[in-house]
Amino acid sequence: MIAAGVTLRWRTGGRLDFDSNENCILDGRREENVFWPVEPPHGRYIVRVDTFSLCGQPGARFGVTVNRNGQIVAQAEGRSVETDTRGPHGAGAGLTMLELDVNAVN
User: Fold this and answer.
1) What angle do CA 11, 87, 46 make, to 5 degrees?
2) Which of 8, 9, 56, 75 is at a distance of 20 to 30 A from 48, taking alpha carbons?
């Protein structure tokens, strides 16, 4: 996820709970969550899926759900193919799935 061009997970307190299928070791979990243990910074968020590897598979389906205070605020589904694994990875890379504004909770 990106806000104002900064990778959120490392710069603003967001955390990855588990790296499913890391290094192509299939764990059966098939789920990863980025979360903020405190209120996330306000601003425009761009949610991207950056596919590093398909682990020998022709493609992978995925879903993205954004929850805030227990409420779903946005959802998207997509599919990665082999060409999505090429090129640089990191801030700004990947398939753009959602864009949303995070404002103060009233």
Assistant:
1) 40
2) 56
Which residue, chain included where needed, has tokens 């995925």?
Answer: 62
- DSSP states of 20-37: TTGGG---S-----EE-S
Domain residues of the chain, as ranges? 2-102
Model confidence pLDDT, tens digit, residues 38-64: 888 888 888 888 888 999 999 999 999
| Sign of the torsion formed by the C-alpha atoms of 90, 95, 97 and 98 | positive
| Nearest one of 45, 39, 32, 61 to 98, comparing CA atoms | 45
Torsion of CA 33, 64, 70, 34, to 10 degrees: 20
Paired tokens of 58: 């022709």
